[in-house]
Amino acid sequence: MKIAVLPGDGIGPEIVGEAIKVLDTLRRDGLRVEMETAPIGGAGFDAAGDPLPEATLALARQADAVLLGAVGGPKYDALPRDKRPEQGLLRIRQALGVFANLRPAIVYPELAAASSLKPELVAGLDLMILRELTGDIYFGQPRGQRRLDDGQREGFDTMKYSESEIRRIGRAGFDIARGRAKKLCSVDKANVLDTSILWRQVMEELARDFPDVVLTHMYVDNAAMQLVRAPRQFDVMVTGNMFGDILSDEASMLTGSIGMLPSASLDEHGKGLYEPIHGSAPDIAGKGVANPLATILSVAMLLRHTGRNETFAARIEAAVRDVLAAGLRTPDIAQPGEPVIGTVRMGDAVVSALARQKP
Ligand code: IPM
Ligand code: MG
Asked: How does residue 298 score in pLDDT terms, banded at 50, 70 and 90?
């Protein structure tokens, strides 16, 4: 398996460095991977004047999987939109056709107290948000700014989903639910948006092929409320690009730390782009305090979904649980007064936990 490693900006290089250590450890146990690194985001702009340099995209296309750190930083805020780091991310998602974005929100028992909700509301939470990633108002045309007759400017974007786009993400949602508690909640705004009316119709049509999965529908505003009221009512949520962007940030906080959550973005053939769901955290970049666990857990997802190697994926997840159980904490997941360690020591701890596992 060939992995394109794109560290990106901010804390990206630090956390990806720890993920590479984990891959190197598994390599000694027989995992066969090749890695090649390339710049993306602000680093891409610095290297080649483009947040997604051609060579980076070429590498990503020929690789089996992409491991990405994070993009963005204040240094690039003033650039025109097409040069901004986020464009690198949006373009690579679209170019690779990775439409199915899996964003699990899992509460580790050791971290339940770090949640902003009462521990008894979130204990045992295991929610999967499936976000459509290559359509919707993020990519819909036309978009732009125009001058109105009265002289003022108007900004506009286009929300749209074709039937086939809805069907393939819906199918992915049913498939995932089938492998879990068999409950799929489709989130839309069908009381207002035509796009959502079609979305709901297609979900209902698909449901006939999955009689074993219970499909429900929820408006996005209610879903946002239910997530903080009673998050354990959900098993799998499937939704469009923009609603999923918002709800997955909300869900991440239920778990106590956005620094813990990995993600996978898959195309139709199992090729994937794997990244932590947090951003580049420019405020702590270079300080060696970032939590590398979300990136390390993204490697586990990579090995599971693209590598189809459940053994190695489960070993990484077990090693992460071991270091949490041993009380090791980066600042973002520590309770006030608890001792903390930095990025490299957290990575080292996962590596030692892997080495201690019995074959
Ligand atoms: C995410 C991010 C991106 C998105 C930004 C950085 C473009 O918020 O991955 O959720 O909106 O998709
Ligand atoms: Mg987001």
From this structure: very high
